[in-house]
Design a protein that fits this description.
There is one protein chain. By secondary structure, the chain is α/β, with parallel strands linked by helices. It has helices at about 1-25, 40-55, 80-85, 115-125, 125-130, 175-185, 195-200, 215-220, 245-250, 250-285, 295-305, 310-320, 320-330; strands spanning about 30-35, 60-65, 90, 140-155, 170, 190, 210, 225-245, 290-295. Strands 1, 2, 3, 4, 5, 6, 7, 8 and 9 form a nine-stranded mixed beta sheet that branches. Helix 2 (about 40-55) runs antiparallel to helix 10 (about 250-285). The longest helix is centred in the last third of the chain and has 36 residues, at about 250-285. It is globular, with a radius of gyration of 24 Å. It starts with a helix and ends with a helix. Bound molecules: (2S)-2-hydroxybutanedioic acid (LMR). (2S)-2-hydroxybutanedioic acid binds near residues 43, 93, 173, 194 and 215.
Amino acid sequence: MAKNKILLVTLLVAMSFVVSATVAMAEPIVIKFSHVVAENTPKGQMANKFKELVDQRLAGKVVVEVFPNSQLFGDDKVLEAMALGDVQLAAPSLSKFEKYTPSLQIFDLPFLFKDMAAVEKFQQGPVGQEMLMSMKNKGYIGLGYLHNGMKEISANSPLRVPADAAGKKFRIMTSDVLAAQYEAIGAMPLKKPFSEVFTLLQTKAIDGQENTWSNIYSKKFFEVQPYITQTDHGVLDYLVVTSTEFWMDLPDDIRAEVKKALDEAIVFGNKVSEDKSIEDRQKIIDSKRSEVIMLTDAERELWVEAMKPVWKQFEDKIGPEKIEAAVKSNM
Ligand code: LMR
């Protein structure tokens, strides 16, 4: 009798081990995706699409949690958080990687790309693809590029020629190239996180900023900036980034499925960016809160002349051959 009891207890203990091991094995992989923009933007929509695809295809195996609007981390902190394993996916703008790699600064050179088709061509070409891996040894892998669009300059006074910006304060992303661009026109650049821009503009602590139509619209910058000059002087795109360690530790089949979902979400996000650059611009015009200033060819040429010397300043750091490849993508 006692023997039977011992046997039963042993069996129960063994079974509980099996059950808990199964539960532990079934624990899904969590991917926290942190970003700083609103949900109704190319990046916000891309992140949500990625979650939707992973939910459909990897239910029970992978869970994606999306944190928009700098809720979890601002762009100034997200890469450090990723190194600590507190976040697995992010898509900071290409301007925000200066601390980690000089090569991505190429995207900040003013008037380098004539349109988004040229940007796409360069990113998908050999130089752009090589850059995805430029931070691998520092612990980060680029999984792809995502578009937002060309940048415009908003201000509290009309800017038609570069001299109109002289002496004014502009918020910029954390990029020395962007700082040099504003210094080239005699303006004062201030590196500030995206989450602070609206308040800085509203309180007139700064005079202006540069951004895409979707960011100017979704974060309501147009409500506190009476003028937006359509300069299309630069590009604001993203690097979808993860930690090398996290990525390499994923089981092969899961990594392949996650990458597939991400690639599809990027295609979706790029379409959103195309649509929003037209729609959000129009919504701003319709709101009558801000006047969109169109430059004549002669006026635009003055901006090009004033800002383009920045290329020479950063040529050695970025690599002249990369700049040459980017210029060729305009053809
Ligand atoms: C900015 O800081 O202005 C942008 O990089 C925000 C974003 O992620 O689009």
